[in-house]
Structures are given as structure tokens and as C-alpha cells.
Amino acid sequence: DLQQSVILLPKGAGDFLLQTAGREVLHLGFSDAQFGSGLRLKPVPMKGDFGVEVLLTTRPTQVIWATILDSRDFKVSNRGLVIEQSGESLNVFQALIGVGDGFALAGTFKLVPGRQSHISLRVANAKAAVVVDGKTVAEGIDVSRIKESSEPLILGNSIHGSRPFNGTIDELLIYTGNKASADIAAAGASDS
Predict the structure, then answer these.
(1) CA distances to 47, 110, 125 from 176, in Å
(2) Distance CA 135, CA 189 (A)
């Protein structure tokens, strides 16, 4: 049962809000009937400093805009966050954060099919940074107008269920507070 494999911890500065445990794989891509349409989790708190980290392996083929995770809310302006393939650019992904009148591009990065990758998106002092496999791909992106979404976080597909990610998602970590860049780089380097 998925609910037993997701650990929710109390909110507070520096606390983990969600970390996965007890499952080898959280999402298997569109080859898996149970999770191919995406795994629905609780909304991601996006106030103050926070971070999202994902450990995954992508496959060579993807649908256009294949989505790793998504909490976009289009009903009330542009809110939430998303990590998705950049259109038709195969295995080139982008992290976006809703800022009300659109989405701020937090970073763009390429993932190598068949190789496990560690992606970290963090916001500290209203600035976003993206670290992939221990290397900073973008930092200092202004997200001071960040807009939190009340939509659930969908893992492995878009919020509408039409952009499935083809690959495995092994771990997901969501936390509040500010995790040091050195810690994220070290975690990414050890994962890859």
C-alpha cells in the first residue's frame, strides 16, 4: 500500500515534509498500469525556504512535455511547480515555479537515458537553484512572487494526466528550510 510507504513528518524549519521509504520504485513510467498515470501526493508547501529532490532514471523515449512532477494550478492564475521535458527536446528537462502571471524558469538540464540522476530544486531567500548530479545548473533565479498551489503533487505525469514520464522514479524528498549547496552537491555526486 502506497500510503504505508510514504512517511509524512511534522512541519517546521528544516523538517522533512515528505520522504519516501519502503518501495523500490515509486513510478515506472507509462509501461506500468498502476502508476503510469501518475502518483497523487499531498500539495507541496511553497512558503519560505523549501526544496524538492528526486532520484530517477529516464528512458530514451519520452512524450512531448513528459512530466516528472507537477503541482500546477491553472484555475487560480499560475501557481505551483513542475519539472518537465522541454517540449520536443528529448530528455532535456526544465524546472518551473509559478509566480502568478506565469512560470519562472528555475533551470534547464539534460538527463542521460539509462543513468540514475539526482535532481534538486530548492528555494532559499526567494531565489531558486537547480542542482543535477551534484552540479549546479542554475542559481539565483528570482522567485519572490512565488504562488503556492493547492493542487496535489503528481509524480510521474502532468496534473491533467496527459504527459507521462517514461522512466523510474526511485526517491522523492520534500523539505522546508534551507539545505546547504554543499550537502546537495555531495548527495548528487554520491547518487550518480
Answers:
(1) 9, 26, 12
(2) 8
CA–CA distances in Å: residue 182 to residues 108, 122, 187, 189: 20, 13, 9, 10
What are the pLDDT digits (tens) for 71-118?
Answer: 998 777 789 999 999 999 999 999 999 998 889 999 999 999 999 999
Q: Which residue matches cell numbers 547518487?
A: 191
From the number of C-beta atoms within 10 Å of its C-beta (0-12, 13-18, 19+), residue 75 rates as exposed
- Whole-model pTM: value is 0.80
- Residue holding cell 502518483? 39
If DSSP codes are grouped into helix, strand and coil, which group holds residue 30? helix
SS (H, E, C) 45-112: CCCCCEEEEEEEEECCCCCCCCEEEECCECCCCEECEEEEECCCCCCEEEEEEECECCEEEEEEEECC
Residues 43, 121, 165: CA angle, nearest 5 degrees:
70
Question: Measured between alpha carbons, how far is 14 from 35 in angstroms, rounded to an integer?
Answer: 30
Q: What is the DSSP code (8-state) at residue 164?
A: B
Q: Is 79 exposed, middle or buried (0-12, 13-18, 19+ CB in 10 A)?
A: buried
